[in-house]
Every structure is written in structure tokens, then in C-alpha cells.
From TrEMBL:
Annotated ranges, domain ABC transporter: 24-254
Family assignment from sequence similarity: Belongs to the ABC transporter superfamily.
Record lineage: Bacteria, Pseudomonadati, Pseudomonadota, Alphaproteobacteria, Hyphomicrobiales
Residues in the signal sequence: none
Top-level division of the source organism's lineage: Bacteria
GO terms, biological process: quaternary ammonium group transport
Molecular function GO labels: ATP binding; ATP hydrolysis activity
Identification of the protein by name: Putative 2-aminoethylphosphonate ABC transporter ATP-binding protein
InterPro entries according to UniProt: AAA+_ATPase, ABC_SmlMolc_Importer, ABC_transporter-like_ATP-bd, ABC_transporter-like_CS, AminoethylPonate_ABC_PhnT2, Mo/tungstate-bd_C_term_dom, P-loop_NTPase
Keyword terms of this UniProt record: ATP-binding, Cell inner membrane, Cell membrane, Membrane, Nucleotide-binding, Translocase, Transport
């Protein structure tokens, strides 16, 4: 697959960008089961070639939405369009997609090559064309040497690759993945998620994957659709979702958080545990109670006298600097997770993740006292729930 170079220079910069219609357009979609509403007014646009992850806890509606797109469980109301074609009421057999289920659903009595060829046999291709396509796909997923084996003779990761090959055999316009990696062990999952993403980019197929694994979504998706209780909480790139969560649910579900009851003191200042901290307070009024959130990874460790150190290393004294005692340390391989107590935060424990190098350089140890900085731009505020 060749990639055309992007034009450079003033003419290209001045040229207006072409706006293409969404490849998949979901509008006002609802799904109810008797008195239970599984999906509530879902609207979403997906561009051609995008890799989208539906992410959320069990029961949030992500699989129900995928099944509605596939025509396996029709919506109660709403419209779904694919490539400008209204597919809202079409049966699954008349929709243009390939799907990989959580269980892979391979035919145990068919060889690997027969599994892949199964969907091709109804496309009026000759046996030679089918054999060539199967061989091409086996090469693509790196399992050409396993073609005569049966699914039970393959590892879970190999079965997943065959299920992918079968799903893309007919070159569908849309690839649907229903938690395809959840049955695999952690190391294999990490390896295969890179393979799936590389294959998706190579094929350019629009892909939707359902997952409850935040790390998986952050690593693979072009955009993430975070769902909760049948509604979409936020849609954005992995960076946007992680760094700029739209709601407290998104902040808490994506990654780890520290949460504190807080009150707005003035513009750019909030009270936590009887102490003032700097942060962005736009959208809140003085005296309003909020929930302040900071991620453990955003907390910056300093030495015993950070003011003296930063007078040399940094021209500006760090804001939100607090003294803290290290109560617990947990080694997690690439970093240390620490639990700190600080008088300025009251009785609450502050969880902070420090790199192995920082722990070694600053001689951080259980029982020791350090200073930590809570960057003002990483201290986020959300409306306090009742």
C-alpha cells in the first residue's frame, strides 16, 4: 500500500481541507428491554479508516451498541448509516462488516484454512481465487505453516489471529471486535494489540473494538468512546480522554486518581484540607463545593528542601508544594507506587507514582519525609455529586 506524500509549502497550507462525510453515522439510537434502557440517545460519527474503541465498565451498553451496528440486536429507535446507506433495519447478513467475537467462534471441525475460506465460498469466487486469498491472509497473520491444523491445536493467540483473518477475508468495509483479547494472558495481549493495530493500519479498514481495558484502548484507538449507564460520557483521542476528562466518571475510570473534597476560594484558588492550592477554576463560583482530582503519575517528587533546589534548577518556585511522609511503598516494576500523608491535605492519603530513578536519586523510603508538588494545571475540578 503506497502512501502519497503530503504537499508542503504555502500553497498547500492555504488550500482548504476537504471535509468527507462520516463512514458510519449513528443518530438518536435507543435500545430498551422492557423497562430497562440499555442505550439512551446515542449519536456518533466515525470516519473511514478510524480505529474506535467503545470503553466502559460491564453493563455500560458498549456491546449492545456494537450488536446494534452489526444488526444482531436491532435498536428500539434511531438510525444507523454506513457509507451513506441506511442500514438501520437490515438483517446482519446484508450488512458490510466482519466480526471477531470474544470466544473467536472458530469451527472446531474445520482446518485453519477451511475456517478462513468459509466466508469466501459464498462470494462466487473460483477455488483457485479462494485458495490464493486464504494463502495471502495466512501470510498476513504469520500462520502459513499452520494451515492444515485444527483450532484446538493452536494457542489462544494463534486462534485470535485466525479469527481476524476470517473476519477480513471478504474485505469488509467495517471490522467489529468484541473484546478479542480478553481471554489471553497479559503478555500475549500486549503483543497482539500491536499486531492488530498494525494490520488495521495496513488494511485501512474502519474498525470498532469493544473493551473494558483502559490500557488497551489508550494504546490502540484513534478515538475512544467512553460509555456509562447507556450514554456516551466523552469521545476523544487517548490523550484528550486521559489529560482532559470531561466528567469525574471519565477521570476516575481512565487511570488512577486521587480525589479530594474542595471549595472554591477565589479565581484560581481552591481549598483542600484547610489549605489553599492553585488550579484552574473557570466555570465555578466562589464558595462552590467541588471534587478535586490529581493523578498519581502527575505528582512531582522533590528533595527535602525543594525551594532551595528549585532556586537553581528552575526559575519559578513550584506551586502547590507540600511536605509529606512516606507511609507505604509498592514496587510495580517500572515505577514505585507510594502512599503519602501530608498535614496540608488533612486526613486523606495521597497516592503518588514515582519513577525508579527518582526514588533512587532522592533516596525516597518508607518513613522518610519528602516534598511533593501538585502541578496547578494537573489539579482538575469537577462538580461535586450529591
Amino acid at each position: 500500500m503506497s502512501i502519497e506524500p503530503t504537499p508542503t509549502g504555502s500553497l498547500a497550507a492555504d488550500r482548504p481541507k476537504a471535509v468527507s462525510a462520516p463512514y458510519l453515522e449513528i443518530t438518536g439510537l435507543w435500545k430498551s428491554y422492557a423497562d430497562f434502557v440499555a442505550l439512551r440517545d446515542i449519536s456518533l460519527s466515525i470516519s473511514k479508516g478510524e480505529f474506535i474503541c467503545f470503553l466502559g465498565p460491564s453493563g455500560c451498553g458498549k456491546t449492545t451498541l456494537l450488536r446494534a451496528i452489526a444488526g444482531l440486536d436491532l435498536q428500539s429507535q434511531g438510525k444507523i448509516e454506513q457509507a451513506g446507506r441506511n442500514i438501520s433495519t437490515l438483517p446482519a447478513s446484508r450488512r458490510d462488516y466482519g466480526i471477531v467475537f470474544q470466544s473467536y467462534a472458530l469451527f472446531p471441525n474445520l482446518t485453519i484454512e477451511q475456517n478462513i475460506a468459509f466466508g469466501l465460498e459464498n462470494t462466487r469466487r473460483s477455488k483457485a481465487e479462494i485458495a490464493a486469498r486464504v494463502g495471502e491472509l495466512l501470510d498476513t497473520v504469520g500462520l502459513a505453516a499452520q494451515s492444515k491444523k485444527y483450532p484446538a491445536q493452536l494457542s489462544g493467540g494463534q486462534q485470535q489471529r485466525i479469527a481476524l483473518a476470517r473476519a477480513i477475508a471478504i474485505s469488509p468495509g467495517l471490522l467489529l471486535l468484541d473484546e478479542p483479547l480478553s481471554a489471553l494472558d497479559a503478555k500475549v495481549r500486549v503483543h497482539l494489540r500491536h499486531e492488530i493495530k498494525a494490520l488495521q493500519r495496513k488494511l485501512g479498514v474502519t474498525t470498532i473494538m469493544v473493551t473494558h481495558d483502559q490500557e488497551e484502548a489508550l494504546a490502540m484507538a484513534d478515538r475512544i468512546v467512553v460509555m456509562n449507564h447507556g450514554v456516551i460520557e466523552q469521545v476523544g483521542s487517548p490523550t484528550e480522554i486521559y489529560r482532559h476528562p470531561a466528567t469525574l466518571f471519565v477521570a476516575d475510570f481512565i487511570g488512577e486518581t486521587n480525589q479530594f473534597a474542595a471549595k472554591i476560594l477565589a479565581d484560581g484558588e481552591v481549598e483542600i484540607g484547610h489549605s489553599a492550592f492553585r488550579c484552574r477554576t473557570e466555570g465555578f463560583s466562589t464558595g462552590q463545593t467541588t471534587t478535586a482530582v490529581v493523578r498519581p503519575v502527575d505528582i512531582i517528587p522533590h528533595g527535602a528542601d525543594a525551594h532551595a533546589v528549585n532556586a537553581v534548577d528552575r526559575p519559578v518556585t513550584p506551586q502547590n508544594l507540600i511536605d509529606a511522609e512516606v507511609r507505604e511503598m509498592e514496587f510495580l516494576g517500572m515505577f514505585w507506587r507510594t502512599r503519602l500523608t501530608a498535614p496540608r491535605l488533612g486526613e486523606r492519603t495521597l497516592v503518588a507514582d514515582f519513577s525508579v530513578n527518582a526514588v533512587r536519586r532522592l533516596n525516597i523510603e518508607t518513613g522518610g519525609v519528602i516534598q511533593v508538588e501538585i502541578p496547578s494545571d494537573r489539579l482538575l475540578l469537577f462538580p461535586r455529586s450529591a
